[in-house]
Design goal:
This protein is of the alpha+beta class. It folds into two domains: 113 residues, 2-Layer Sandwich (Murine Class I Major Histocompatibility Complex, H2-DB, Chain A, domain 1); 36 residues, no CATH class. The protein has five helices and five strands; from the N terminus they run αβββααββαα. β1 and β2 form a beta hairpin. The longest helix is centred in the middle third of the chain and has 25 residues. The chain is globular and about 45 Å long. It starts with a helix and ends with a helix. 17% of the residues are buried.
């Protein structure tokens, strides 16, 4: 069930993402994982000039942004997702463990909640990210061994 607070949080999340990207952007695809003891948030974005995805954690290096400022903004974004997770738990019988958010500069917005128990998963965080990147962005890892892992996992030949 969606609540007014969730709607406000969606807006704040979109604004925070916009504040974190130091250029014009056309599309953002974000992964958030909120567990009892940990939080993970990262995203990829495209610019109007380039369809190639830019990884959020590369922003400081690629755009000469202070790592300290980027980390503060990232922690604020993680906190917004934690609030969204808490609001969701209070109003729904089952809480999500991770989500994929897609946002376009036109305002188009979608969110896909996942309830998989990632702690019980056979995949580690790095492997989950590789699979998520392929499933949501069509990006294969550059490393041949990692590429083979993704292909084997997804039964792609």
């Amino acid at each position: 069930m969606e609540t007014k607070k969730m709607e406000v949080l969606y807006q704040k999340i979109a604004e925070q993402i916009n504040d974190m990207i130091p250029s014009e952007w056309s599309k953002v695809v974000l992964y958030a994982e909120i567990l009892d003891g940990s939080r993970e948030v990262y995203f990829f974005f495209q610019t109007p000039e380039n369809d190639e995805y830019i990884y959020s954690h590369d922003i400081p290096e690629q755009f000469l942004v202070s790592k300290k400022i980027y980390t503060e903004l990232l922690l604020d974004l993680q906190e917004l997702f934690k609030q969204l997770h808490n609001e969701f738990k209070e109003n729904n019988p089952e809480a999500w463990t991770n989500l994929t958010l897609k946002l376009e500069s036109t305002g188009t917005f979608s969110i896909n909640y996942d309830y998989e128990d990632v702690i019980e998963s056979d995949l580690d965080e790095y492997e989950r990210q590789m699979i998520w990147e392929f499933n949501n962005l069509g990006i294969f890892p550059e490393d041949e061994e990692d590429k083979e892992f993704v292909k084997d996992y997804l039964n792609i030949k």
